[in-house]
Design goal:
Elements (H helix, E strand, L loop, with lengths): L7 H10 L4 E2 L10 E6 L5 H17 L3 E6 L3 H10 L2 E2 L2 E5 L3 H5 L20 H5 L11 E6 L2 E5 H6 L8 H13 L11 E4 L8 H12 L5 E5 L2 E4 L4 H15 L13 H9 L3 E6 L4 H9 L3 E4 L14 E7 L6 H12 L1 H8 L18 H4 L5 H8 L12 H16 L5 H18 L4
Parallel strand pairs: 1-4, 2-3, 2-5, 8-11
Antiparallel strand pairs: 5-13, 6-13, 7-11, 7-12, 9-10
Helix pairs in contact: 2-12, 2-13, 8-9, 8-16, 9-16, 16-17
Length: 437
């Protein structure tokens, strides 16, 4: 997910200075290791999978690699490297970061026609590698949609069905909150687990799937390269109101949610403190191992009363960074990453540490690679997934909308419609600032 708001003044300065900058740490010769940055925790299972991918590429191409895994302050560290004119050769980063990175002059344009295997990549994934200028600035690598991972054992104990509507979901959340589903005799469980912090725009990231499932949106295209803010749309307001009702009236959301990011929320779920977690497939293997594979299930986000179906769609692209001394190596790595072999390595079967959530290569059979049928729920949801629109910079839009959403969930006295009108005004101004209105 896009995470940072970056200064316009810095962006302008860096755009000027990046042309011709070196890359790859202290290495600059074309035969030195190709430096690959990925947004993952160092020494994590995902980092190890990225290393397997790099090793596979080296074996296939003979090109040496160096994998750098970073999680915290990823964009800030890229900024620092850019200021030193020393960007890495490759960055594997969120699709929603494309505008942020491209407008700062960090990226090399990808010639899709000359990229071997590009015709095997889904068109939906290619759209996510296209910026507001209509050009391709990355090679698709991974995609994902969202679904609800739930405590199956709790639901079955209470004799309830898999929810088909938002009313059903609210009823299940209330039962998980009030009917002691874990049987410990304490009122210590919640229905909905929500990473609702403003940090890195998490509140907006989470809410987007409900907004899309109700036919709403944050920003919509109003013509070639132009967009309009829609946070005051009735369908968007309805979705945000439903979520505020869960926080404030039904009180089915985990305590502290307005301050929590996903790292904390993952642990809340694993500690048996909640039963319904709308999230991506990247944590399925983790939860199957930590909670018990027989205790969890996955089901689609129910269609909202006014729209849907649809959830957030996102993923990662392989970005070829500007100033690299090894442009041929960059291209070859992108070709390997989108190949069936590269995709299968990144998927990592059913084990934890997948860096390819859903494959972008249409020749890769998800069911053949992963035996857990719950992955298919996420694959099916992807058919109706909604990516962030290709505005020049999505990061400030996500952050601004997260601030507004967090406010109406943290303060139950706030009127949702009024606050969404105010948020819409801010998004309109942001689009104007980006010359995208």
């Amino acid at each position: 997910m896009s995470r940072s708001v970056l200064g316009v003044a810095i962006a302008t300065a860096l755009t000027v200075t990046l042309t011709g900058c070196g890359s790859g740490g202290s290495e600059s010769a074309t035969d030195d290791a190709l430096e690959i940055w990925i947004r993952q925790a160092p020494d994590s299972d995902s980092h190890k999978t990225a290393q397997k991918l790099a090793d596979g590429f080296t074996k296939a191409s003979g090109i040496k690699t160096k994998v750098v895994a970073l999680l915290d302050d990823f964009e800030t560290k890229l900024q620092q490297q850019a200021a030193q004119k020393d960007l890495p050769d490759i960055v594997i980063n969120d699709t929603a970061q494309i505008g942020n990175m491209q407008t700062q002059g960090w990226l090399r344009e990808v010639d899709k026609a000359s990229l071997a295997g590009s015709d095997k990549v889904s068109e939906t994934a290619w759209k996510a590698a296209t910026a507001s200028d209509g050009k391709t600035w990355g090679a698709p690598f991974s995609s994902q949609a969202f679904a609800i991972i739930a405590r199956k054992d709790w639901r079955e104990k209470l004799g309830l069905e898999v929810p088909k509507t938002w009313d059903d979901l609210a009823a299940l959340a209330k039962a998980f909150t009030e009917k002691d589903p874990d049987g410990n005799g304490k009122a210590d469980s919640a229905g909905l687990l929500i990473p609702a912090s403003t940090k890195r725009g998490y509140a907006s990231w989470y809410a987007s799937s409900f907004i899309y499932a109700n036919g709403g949106d944050f920003v919509t295209s109003s013509g070639t390269g132009t967009f309009g803010a829609t946070m005051n749309d009735t369908k968007t307001v309805e979705a945000v109101q439903w979520l505020q009702d869960q926080f404030c009236d039904a009180k089915t959301v985990n305590p502290g949610a307005v301050n929590n990011d996903t790292a904390v929320t993952h642990e809340v779920f694993e500690n048996n403190q909640g039963g319904l977690y709308l999230t991506g497939p990247y944590v399925l293997a983790r939860f199957a191992g930590s909670i018990g594979t027989d205790k969890i299930e996955v089901f689609p986000v129910p269609k909202g009363p006014s729209g849907g179906p649809g959830t957030l769609g996102e993923g990662e692209n392989v970005y070829l960074m500007a100033g690299s001394q090894n442009e041929d190596g960059q291209k070859k790595f992108a070709e390997y990453a989108i190949s069936a072999e590269g995709q299968r390595i990144g998927m990592n079967k059913d084990a934890n540490g997948a860096i390819v959530r859903l494959p972008v290569n249409t020749e890769v059979d998800l069911a053949a690679e992963r035996q857990d049928p719950r992955w298919q729920v996420f694959q099916d949801a992807y058919a109706n997934a909604v990516y962030a629109p290709p505005v020049p910079n999505w990061a400030p839009i996500r952050q601004s909308s997260a601030d507004a959403l967090n406010a109406v969930w943290a303060d139950c006295g706030k009127d949702v419609k009024t606050e969404m009108e105010a948020a819409n005004t801010k998004l309109t101004q942001e689009l104007q600032n980006q010359k995208a209105s």
